[in-house]
Structures are given as structure tokens and as C-alpha cells.
Amino acid sequence: MNGNTPYAGLPGETGAGQRAAADIPDLSSAQKRLLHRDVSRIAARTREFLPNEYVVDADVSNGMTGPEVTVAVRPPVGHAVSAGFTPDLEEAVAAEEVITAAERDEVARGLAASAALQVKQAISNNVRPTGK
Prior knowledge:
By secondary structure, the protein is an alpha+beta fold. It has a single domain, classed as Double Stranded RNA Binding Domain (2-Layer Sandwich), CATH 3.30.160. It is 33% helix and 17% strand. It has helices at residues 29-49, 101-123; strands at residues 55-63, 66-74, 81-85. Strands 1-2-3 form a 3-stranded antiparallel β-sheet, with helices on one face. Strand 1 and strand 2 (66-74) form a beta hairpin. The longest helix is centred in the last third of the chain and has 23 residues, at 101-123.
């Protein structure tokens, strides 16, 4: 029963639970540059929405199904928030961007709002109202 699943692995080639190298898409150097540029744009756009006290960072890594993008925000207080996704590389073969401008703005706005909410929740119990 376990031998007919893609997670059983190939004897002598791929361990159980691992993907075969042929299943993971390879990025060309141009696609890598575009992906890193687009991720940097998401981080920069997120920084535009937030004060300087928030730390924003982005990363591109290789996941089980190909490249994975993570953009994270560390607010001055509260928990860090992040957005991680796998870009669709098939649509970006002939395009000049891997992540569209609309997607970049959506991720940046969502992260900024989530980070601001983390600060609000972290300090809501510690702030005494000055008047009624």
C-alpha cells in the first residue's frame, strides 16, 4: 500500500517523504533575479506603510515544491507577522515580473495591517485612558 504513493520514495534514489529532483522546478538566473527583485519590492512597499520602529525582512528559499517567498515584519512590541507563498513560475516565464504589482501591494498592505494590529493588541491592556 505504501509503495504506490508519491511519498514512499524511489528505492536507491529518493528517500521516503522526499520529492524527486525532477519534480522540483529549476529557476533560470533571470527568473531568480526577477523573484529577488519582486520580493525586495514587497519589503520596500511594506516599509512605506510602517514607521521606522518596525523591522521588515524578506527571503527566498527552496521549498518542497520549488521556490518559496517569505516576507516578515517584527513590530516594536507584540508578535512578528509573516506572509509566505509560492509564486506561480509558469505564468512568469515571459513576463518581466514574477509577482505582479497588485499582488505585491496586497501582501504589503496585509503585512502592515497585521503588524499594526499586533502592536495595538500588545499595548491595549497596558494603556490607561486619560479621561472619559
